[in-house]
Amino acid sequence: MTDSDALVSDYLRRLELAASGLPADRRAELIEEITAHIAEARAQSQASIAGPESDLLDLLNRLGDPEEIAVAAADAPVLALAGMPDQPAGPGPFTGGAAGQAPGGQAGWRSRHAYRQPAGAPGTLRPAGPGLPASARADTLRPGGLEIAAVSLTIGSAVLLPVVPFAAAVLWLAGIILLWCSSRWRVSDKVLGTVVWPAALGLVVLLVKLSLVPRVRIAGLAVGLAAVVVVAVRLLQQAGRARA
Amino acid sequence: MVDGEAGNLVAQMRRGVLPYCVLAMLGDTERYGFELVRSLASVDGMVTGEGTIYPLLARLRRQGLVETTWRESDSGPPRRYYRLAPAGRVALAEFTGSWKLLRDSVDSLLDAAPEKGRRSDDR
């Protein structure tokens, strides 16, 4: 099974590389869908007569080149009525002629050398592709340092709160700014990251004010902390999934 | 290069109608990604790589033409189910009407074409 797993992770890595020009949320979603497709197909072929290995080759063949998928994601066919400006004018790579493409796709991912293709390979997104202004997407290519800093500051700064409240507040604010600067998160995630500490602290203050039974207070505190941890993990996951 | 041009044209047409074919496949039922992709790919000549359908599905969702929900499955990983949104239903109905009209018109012209249609385009 390890060989199969290596094939799959190789394939997904190539997809991630080829899709690195996409906005983070769209790239994460694409990889999620393709991963789910592979998992589904493997689950369904568990009982098949052919070996899992040959099934997998067939499966990846049918999926097509990761580069081809990434290009389709950059300019997937749209309904004209929606008035979106990213309808490509030329004959796209999406349908380059059924007969011509299948063998190319096979050779593309079967050959061991193809695995090593760098980001500049022919299949990579065209920089000036329709609907994908290169300048606007440049930030998605950066490594995840910004995201890690954002999460550490936003979530971690509270450690300093009892000692040096002012510094904690400044660091937290810096974290929030970084959080909103990154393109790796959806707005909903950013809002979550922003409100989680104020909400948790608000809860603590409320519990103290109400002077409830200690047990209830501790439970409330635990809920608040759990929420903070969950949000931190979620943010890191989202950023990590989008990272090349 | 007459052959190439015709091929490109067909490729573009296929590309243009594919979103509506996806909407049509959903119809009144709800299908999960894998199932939808497999049945679409099983129609001859519609798709070259199954993987390229997912970006299309994502776009249809962003356009509000399909809606999705994640659901657990008994046999494997959780599945994202797609169903037609009201806007998708409208788009599909409009397209179906225009398509049938166009198809009939083109068919009638092609069928009525005299023999000289095949002048010298065999290489």
Largest sheet entry of chain A:
none
Q: What portion of residues of chain A is helical? A: 55-70%
Low-confidence stretches of chain A: 76-142
Q: Could you give the order of the helices and strands of chain B?
A: HEHHEEH
Structural class of chain A: mainly alpha
Assembly state of the chains shown: heterodimer
Assign a percent range to the helix content of chain B: 55-70%
Report the count of strand segments of chain B: 3
* Name given to the CATH architecture of chain B: Orthogonal Bundle
Global morphology of chain A? elongated
Number of domains of chain B: 1
CATH class of chain B, named Mainly Alpha
**Count of helices of chain B?**
4
Q: Indicate the overall shape of chain B.
A: elongated
Mean pLDDT of chain B: 87
A few lines on this structure:
The complex is a heterodimer of chains A (244) and B (123). Chain A has helices at 2-18, 24-44, 52-63, 66-74, 98-110, 112-115, 134-137, 145-156, 165-181, 187-210, 214-242. With 244 residues, chain A is mostly helical.
